[in-house]
């Protein structure tokens, strides 16, 4: 009888991933989400019914929600910033401006919520009342990360004008540029970031990837990284 063969082959380093001790599964989705199958063979069910019905909410519905949260102004401010309820945000801040940097359970501030939804007027109001542009979530996201992830270029530009750190890194070492590079609809935001003289496109995330690596794999705008080639302060390799 033949002896059972023992598989003593060493793993191929090129086909294996060596995750760092700071590896974050959620942040892996931000840079490798394109690998998740979609369509009829996918187990991902897409948006919920609540998401689909969001645009159908009436003013009466919003007012009812506000009444339910009136006794918790911090919660109401977070909600109002996310839902673009500018008048409510203004009223709450006029009553108690110290709530401007209140946080939810994941350490998102009203500024984070307004930024990732692209509500520029709310962002302006929050910053005018002292919102912290450097506030970080439990995963290390700043409001600029939130804006760049969802291609909210106007909000990102405003945050940069108010001293947001363009090279801030999350716990997974993702910069705003990494997040923009992973969004296939992020041309405006990529142009904004890459034309900034202080951008450092060579920074790597916890998987040792630069933003250019992600853009080349996931999108059609990787050519935009040529913008920085002639810059005296930076280059795609630095």
Structurally, the number of domains stands at 2
Rounded radius of gyration (Å): 21 Å
Mean pLDDT: 83
Structural class: mainly alpha
Low-confidence stretches: 1-7, 13-17, 34-53, 232-238
The N- to C-terminal Cα distance equals 60 Å
Helix content: 40-55%
How many DSSP H or I helices?
12
- Can you tell me the CATH superfamily of the largest domain? Ankyrin repeat-containing domain
Could you describe the largest sheet, including whether it forms a barrel?
none
Shape: elongated
Please name the CATH topology of the largest domain.
Answer: Serine Threonine Protein Phosphatase 5, Tetratricopeptide repeat
Keywords: ANK repeat, Differentiation, Nucleus, Phosphoprotein, Repeat, Spermatogenesis
GO cellular component, one term: BRCA1-BARD1 complex
Protein name: Ankyrin repeat domain-containing protein 49
Subcellular location: Nucleus
Task: Offer a few descriptive terms.
disordered N terminus, Ankyrin_rpt, ANK repeat, mainly alpha, Serine Threonine Protein Phosphatase 5, Tetratricopeptide repeat, Ankyrin repeat domain-containing protein 49, ubiquitin-protein transferase activity, 12 helices, disordered C terminus, 238 residues, repeat
């Amino acid at each position: 009888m033949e002896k059972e063969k023992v598989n003593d082959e060493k793993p191929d380093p090129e086909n294996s991933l060596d995750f760092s001790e700071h590896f974050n599964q959620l942040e892996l989705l931000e840079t490798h989400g394109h690998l998740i199958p979609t369509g009829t063979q996918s187990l991902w069910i897409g948006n919920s019914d609540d998401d689909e019905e969001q645009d159908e909410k009436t003013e009466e519905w919003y007012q009812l929600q506000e009444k339910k949260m009136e006794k918790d102004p911090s919660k109401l401010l977070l909600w109002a910033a996310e839902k673009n309820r500018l008048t409510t945000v203004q009223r709450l801040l006029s009553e108690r401006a110290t709530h401007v940097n209140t946080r939810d359970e994941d350490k998102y501030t009203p500024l984070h919520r307004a930024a990732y939804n692209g509500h520029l007027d709310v962002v302006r109001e929050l910053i005018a009342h002292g919102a912290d542009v450097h506030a970080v979530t439990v995963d290390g996201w700043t409001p600029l990360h939130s804006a760049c992830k969802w291609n909210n270029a106007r909000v990102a530009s405003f945050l940069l004008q108010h001293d947001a750190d363009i090279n801030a890194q999350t716990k997974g070492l993702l910069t705003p540029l990494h997040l923009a590079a992973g969004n296939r609809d992020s041309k405006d935001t990529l142009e904004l970031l890459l034309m900034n003289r202080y951008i450092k496109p060579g920074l790597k995330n916890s998987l040792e990837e630069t933003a250019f690596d992600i853009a080349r794999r996931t999108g059609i705008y990787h050519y935009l990284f040529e913008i920085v080639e002639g810059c005296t302060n930076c280059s795609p390799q630095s």
